[in-house]
Amino acid sequence: MDLSGIITGATAAIDVLTTARPLSGVVTAGLQNAANVASQLVPRAEDRRAFFAFLEVERQLLKALNPLFEKEGLRLAGAQRSSRWNENYQYTAVYHDNQIHAALLQLPSDALTSDDESVIGQFLMLLKAFKGVRVRWLAQNESALTFAYQEAVREEDKGEDWQFVVWRDIQNTIGGAQKFGVLKIFQVSAPPASGSGGAKTLTKEQLQPVMDILAKLAPDTPGGPAGFFDGIVKKSRWPEPWKQQQGGRSSNAIKEASDIVNYAVGQGTFPAGHDKAGQSVLGWLLCDFVNEDTAGGGAQSMLSRFIIDNGLLKDEAVINALRKKIL
What we know:
The protein is of the alpha/beta class. The protein has helices spanning 4-19, 25-39, 45-53, 59-70, 109-112, 117-129, 147-156, 167-175, 182-185, 204-217, 224-235, 240-245, 253-267, 281-290, 297-309, 316-323; strands at 54-55, 75-82, 88-96, 99-106, 135-138, 162-164.
């Protein structure tokens, strides 16, 4: 930034104070120039949003990193995420089998040095938009978030998998000077093996609240809980052999909710050849419940948060839709 205007204005002001001469046109112009330049140090509202609107990894760095990720069965590509406040964020996603495995967000270094409260506020909105996503931040020549940003993360981090990657480690990895691989540096796990499913890792204690919600969704109609859960299964993405295994349901909503959840957990992921192959059966089942007419705002919110918090679905569009249902 050219500081000549500020210096000229300051010099003129000192000259006025020491000589007691009236303000001349040159002095006035100098002071006005100083004020104009100083005002530019505080970004406008639209510029503050722009700080975090484009978070894609810089092109040359992306070109250097992609081969390293590809060796691990992953690839880097651009992606977009929207918030419930209609903010859009462009970032770089780590993909595995066309599903987002993690998000790389290159933060602008000038934004990190700002202590403007509105800029920090925009960062908080960014954090809310990436809830439930494995995020890796990086910023040129930076080794950590500044204090104000660390406080913002601390306020929003409720067990989120968010990490800052040291810039020097990235450079050393690219140059071959770093003994650890790219997965270690970015603290990203290896791609999941085919057929693995997050639902199998959930405990009974974690699943019980979900079963309780589903039991309460069963409408008090002539079909009762049996008809309700049968209808869900028929409309589900389950393979026909799975649907045919269902039957003989009772009028006990609690039992039927427990049975259908346990069955989905036991199946783990959809089989090869299915359009949702390798994806969580439980995740898509709960998504079906979220979209049921009988599901009120509270149930939709709780089920949506459960799906996102446990990483049951990786489809970005579906996750965005679920996020909008969280109260």
